[in-house]
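It is worth pausing here to work through a concrete case rather than discussing structure prediction in the abstract. The textbook approach is simple: state the sequence, then state the predicted structure, then interpret. We follow exactly that order.
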Amino acid sequence: MQVQFLGTSSGSPSRYRNMSAVAISFDTSKQWMLVDCGEGTQHQILKTPLSPAKLAIICITHIHGDHCYGLPGLLSSMSLHGRSEPVTLIAPQKLINFIHASLALTDVNLGFDLYCHDVEALAGPLQLALCKIESIKLKHRVPSFGYKVTEAQVPKKLKIDQLQANNIESGPHYNTLQKGHNVDYKGTTLHAHQYTYDSYKPRVVIICGDNEKPTILSEYLNNVDLLVHEATFTHRDLLKVGTHTGHSDAKRVAEFAQKYGVKRLALTHFSVRYHGPGMLEPLKREALEHYQGDIHFAEDLMCLTIPKQQL
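Step two, the predicted structure:
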């Protein structure tokens, strides 16, 4: 499982950073998902091995343009690249309306079905073929969300001892069970969940939108392998700019991650005042002073691999 940063800037792009977008890819499928889609995201995708035709899930955290203005163009390009399988879009209803209006007003007919889910109306986690997605309501100037993503297609291993104990001989049905399917055997249904187990722990990441209150996430951190959170400013600069921006600073996020035992933290969404060689150093020093875990300061196209962990 890999998390790749396609854009790491806040508000507007610069020569060094594009606007917010994070790709998540999975070991067992060429299909992948995208969280946020700032303007220029499809240009960033061209610099990676990711295929627009294989983008299956898109999640938008909130309606601010630096997180969504690239989506109409990307959807159109996906269609031109031959995407025909359905695509799932999870986003605020206003963004869904914007997408429908943009496509209609520019006479775009997608070559695939776009299944839209209003994130504010989700009753619970959404189970998809690639992963399970749980939305997390954050605190910002407009409704903003984080997405907890748990991979779903974990290869199975057979419980050989249990199969043998139940006098179930080896055969093609073993392979069927291992693929996660129930199978008929001598007039009896063998249930895959009874005779198989995951070969490793499903990996879990949280990708957040803009959020001034990291502690909101505290109840969602169980089994999380990576937390991606904005750190738009240093603490000192945020106090100068004003907390009305609805953003976090490196100190606040680092203190939260340290207090709640976050195993791996990636900071992103940096104000343009920190772009350029050496400009991020004040923010790095602040975060490192308050968090002693595995921390990453996202750069455009940086790719983090989430390692497998045995159960």
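Step three, interpretation. Residues 4 and 303 are 4 Å apart (CA to CA). DSSP finds nine helices and 18 strands in the chain.
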